[in-house]
Design brief:
By secondary structure, the protein is of the alpha+beta class. It is 35% helix and 27% strand. The structure holds adenosine-5'-diphosphate (ADP) and magnesium ion.
Length: 319
């Protein structure tokens, strides 16, 4: 199958269509309109086979993951997703793979009301690059740089589940069903916190999505905001599957350092804490306060109950 036939068969017809797309797939570029008063947030993520996903990952799971990584980045800025582009590299035209992948992607565009507006299709090692664009009201973007000493640190959802799922997929641990399926689902089909992201606008001071792992992502906020942070490790939210199947010690290790949860971590002042918690609760978004920012530049302290573990980059392994 030729490039144009692949595009026509798998990517051109299906999927959600938006009114703000003047020209979609088929010409030299797409043409879209941006609403007055909105800024555009733009992000790209590439998943390479054997690097970012196991080579035997189901094509539908690759679609979920590639899209989630991008929508999660938009959510972390407070942006609402609108359009995506897809650059696909494949060793040869694998029609079954393309069929499953494109069906999943089309369904996801319906779910998130976004449109696939273009891309590129090339021969090469299996890799999926998605670029996502979304709207954010002018000057409402939430960056990593806005955290202030005294801000409370919150996370959405539960932490570490995707890391357990990865170890199951790699056959390094075995967990009985149904929790097995839960962990694999968290690893293969993460949920980007799109709604939560938009609710943080004008209330949260800083936000980041948890893709590399809590410690490393908190450090990004600390550096960008020139602050310090204390994380109360015993407060980290763990799923019941995690509590029931994984020892407390390794559960906290997963929660602190495993990646790919795609939850949001945000900081909020005492003043806005209450109304933000109400807004999130009304939208059914679970959040947990896990610590507080302070003025100690570049310092991350992990606390377990009353005990302190001053943190240095090389030192968290033996926690
Ligand atoms: P050009 O050579 O002008 O860059 P292409 O031949 O690569 O255009 O692509 C033709 C059209 O199909 C373009 O509108 C492009 O955006 C779109 N397209 C190509 N690959 C994909 C893909 N994997 N998913 C969605 N759209 C695609
Ligand atoms: Mg091209």
């Amino acid at each position: 199958m030729k490039e144009f036939d692949i595009i026509d068969t798998f990517f051109r017809k299906g999927g959600h269509k938006r009114k703000d797309v003047q020209l979609g797939i088929g010409d030299d570029s797409a043409i879209v309109s941006i609403p007055v008063g909105q800024f555009l947030a733009v992000t790209t993520d590439t998943l390479v086979s054997d690097v970012h996903f196991l080579a035997n990952t189901a094509p539908a799971d690759v679609a979920h993951k590639a899209l989630a990584a991008n929508l999660s980045d938009l959510a972390a800025m407070g942006a609402e997703p609108a359009w995506i582009s897809l650059s696909l590299s494949m060793p040869e035209a694998d029609l079954d793979w393309l069929n499953e992948f494109s069906n999943a992607l089309c369904q996801l565009t319906e779910y998130y009301s976004i449109q696939l507006i273009g891309g590129d299709t090339v021969q090469g090692p299996l890799a999926v690059t998605i670029t996502a664009q979304g709207f954010i009201p002018e000057k409402n973007a939430i960056t990593r740089a806005g955290a202030k000493p005294g801000d409370w640190i919150f996370v959405t959802g539960t932490l570490g589940d995707a890391g357990v799922g990865l170890d199951i997929a790699k056959k390094q641990i075995a967990i009985p069903d149904p929790d097995n399926a839960y962990f694999l689902g968290r690893h293969n089909r993460p949920t980007p916190r799109v709604l939560a992201g938009t609710l943080l606008r004008r209330k949260a001071n800083a936000c980041i999505d948890l893709s590399d792992g809590l410690i490393s992502d908190v450090k990004h906020i600390i550096e960008a905001s020139d602050c310090g942070a204390t994380i109360q490790v015993d407060k980290l939210p763990l799923s019941s599957a995690m509590k029931n199947n994984v020892s407390a010690d390794s559960a906290f290790k997963y929660a602190l350092s495993a990646g790919d949860d795609y939850e949001l971590l945000f900081t909020v002042s005492e003043e806005h804490r209450g109304n933000l918690q109400v807004a999130l609760a009304n939208a059914n978004v679970q959040v947990t306060c896990i610590g507080q920012m302070n003025g100690n530049s570049n310092n991350l302290t992990l606390k377990f109950e009353k005990e302190e573990y001053p943190f240095d980059a090389s030192g968290h392994e033996h926690f």
